[in-house]
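Archive transcription. Copying these from loose printouts into the bound notebook so they stop getting lost. Printout 1 of 2:
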Amino acid sequence: MSSPPLSLLTRDSGLLWHPYATLDAGAHYAVAAARGVRLSLTDEAGTHEVIDGMSSWWSMVHGYRHPVLDAAAHEQIDTFSHVMFGGLTHSPAVELAERLVAMAPGDLQHVFLADSGSISVEVALKLALQYQHARGHGTRQRFLALRGGYHGDTFAAMGVCDPVDGMHAAFAPLGREQVFLPRPPAARLTAEGQWESDATELAAWEAAARNMAATHAPELAGIICEPILQGAGGMYVYAPRALRILREIADEHDLLLIVDEIATGFGRTGTLFATEWAQVQPDIMCVGKALTGGYLSLAAMLCTAEVAGALGDAGEALLHGPTFMGNPLACAVANASLELLTGGGDPRSSSAPWRVQVSALESGLREALAPARALSCVKEVRVLGGVGVIQLSEPVRVAELSQAAVRRGAWVRPFRDLVYVMPPYIASAGDLSVLGAALVAAVGQVHGD
């Protein structure tokens, strides 16, 4: 008699690494199906229908199996799914670059298409170094970054992540030591749309930032930051004024301001790009995650004509070229995703689909997560755009809390002391109510009330 087939979870265990996990950690659930905002998960106990509170790590903004994105993928596959970008071009890539330039803040006019967000950061850092070299500033080879920042897991990107509290301390000897500013003081956006932060703390931070920048200016090529919201660094929100200060410092010392909008771009924080909260114009911007609506891996780096022109005047090529650069399939889906976000009109209009959806997310999350404030284990509840955070007074018990949430119909992936959600933009008021109730109950069960 033959043995019963092994479960998918058993076959996975010890075979596949999962993100930021030991080899034997495995997975807790297998995905059987996905549609809209819901995942069908299976484990030894059976099947669980859950709302995806993570948008598959902040990317699946339109939900799963969206008919418009499905159609775009099918149409491009029937034409050609990939072609090298060296010496060749195609309509999906050109259209995507045109869309991004039209949507981007400030005077960003040129686009480099990359495989992933981390690679777009690598390209941005390379470009900043080449820019300074082309202008005769070859000694400017370091970057000013923020404590609490996260920009990816490849080597140059790791180098500008938080060197102590980040995930990459073990690799510090292999990277160039950068210059780190203290993270700006925390801020919050009230339900009335007003920013609140401690003015005294912000003034002290500004003084320290300006002093550190002045001290290291001759060796700095640029400043890199996640604007307004630091994601993996703790879903940490800081005031727009701090971002304006970084822009002023960059201008004062002839540095390039690089904004990492990979997690925050395309409406997630309540503006089309988080940079717009501060009305700041970056020199270089990186986008990814939601770019394709979560369907395929794709990112982009955008820069101003001045930055690109410095390389052109020096006859320098931008020294990067991924095999799958400008992948037509990913670009076609990205174009369809951006069309959904904008409704084919002005993306900054009050009636643009993303703005209507994210506004509803913000109000829905404020209401749904508010009961968590009554739990004694909760330190703070905060909401910014389509981001909702329950911060605990102790480290979260990740596996226990995730399983408790699944039993109540929600999928979340907590970390540090945070239970957070970034739901798909299409989540309804009822979805948010279920999501909030599941999280509050799970936190109360696992960490006590």
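Printout 2 of 2:
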Amino acid sequence: MFTGIIEEIGTIEKIKKSSASMVLSVSGKRVLEDVKLGDSISINGTCLTVTSFNSRTFTVDVMPETFEHTSLNILGAGAKVNLERAMPANGRFGGHFVTGHIDGTGTIVSTHFVENALYITIEIPGGLSRYFIHRGSVCLDGTSLTVFELGNNTITVSLIPQTRHDTILGSKKVGDIVNVECDMMAKYIYKFMNGGGGEGPGKSDIGTDFLTRHGFME
């Protein structure tokens, strides 16, 4: 489990890539302070397992499922990446519940400043739109952010100066790809309300009619 509060920006030092998987060697400082074999570290929002490390780098394996469905497959040596260690049980929880399981990738379609805020609009896969609400949470490249606007298969987020400085999102441009993780609670609620999305024993009795009858909706 992660919080979406990026600890540092790391660098891809080496990549060993095959047709549908790869091994990444990543440099960092803060995430290596107490690292152990088997630890989980989020790289651009993707939860990966430390398989080896030294005083300045750690290595992770990227399996075919992750290779195919995240932006990690377009990284090259020298690329900057967002890094976050798994949240400790006694740590502060400054973002939102982030699993590190990417739902899909989005494409930046516009950026503009409003005073000190950088607004970024991202085109997302149509199937993910149902999980977003105005002022709800989203994780982009591992960064916990708030959805300020909803469009036709687009979401808009706002970056404060601190976030632009501390994450790679501040240097992203139109056309760049980002990893998208929808709010975990939204996904569970949607599945529950729709009877498990066809995978459960049947459709839930709780729907808009039920909520209206019992005063939860008008």
